[in-house]
Amino acid sequence: MRYLTLDWPDALSFFDGVIGLHDSEVIDVKIDRESKLGYIILINVLDYSIEQGFRVKFDRIIIEMADVSTDHDEVASVLVGYDLVDAELKDGSLWMSTMVGSVLFRFKTIRFLLPD
After folding, report:
1. How many Å apart are CA 45 and CA 20, to the nearest integer?
2. What is the mean pLDDT of residues 3-16?
3. pLDDT digit string, tens, across residues 46-58
4. How far apart are CA 110 and CA 106, in angstroms?
5. What is the H or E stretch that residue 25 is in?
6. Which backbone phi and psi does 98 adopt, to 5 degrees?
C-alpha cells in the first residue's frame, strides 16, 4: 500500500481536496476490536476542477484509522454498497452518511492509502 497522507494536516487537506469523498461508493468497512484498527474502502473517488468538472481521481482508496470506535460496529456495515451522500472530517472524527444511514467514527489517527 502507498500512503497518500501521513499526519493530520495531510489528511485534512487530502479530504478537502477530493470534495469530502462525496459520491464515492463504500465497498468495505472493517473494524478489528483487538487491534482497534479500522479500514474503510471506497471506490470511484471524485475530484472537481472548473476545466474538467467531476472526474474519477482514484479508482480505490483505503481510509485507515487507529484507535477507532463507533457506537455500534455492526452499524458501520450499513454503509457498504452505497454512495456517500455527505462526509465530514474533524479532529478525531469522521462522519459518513449514505441514503440508508450514517456512522460516526472516532479515531486517534487517520491516514489515506492507495492499494498496491
Report:
1. 9
2. 94
3. 877 788 888 888 9
4. 10
5. strand 25-32
6. -125, 180
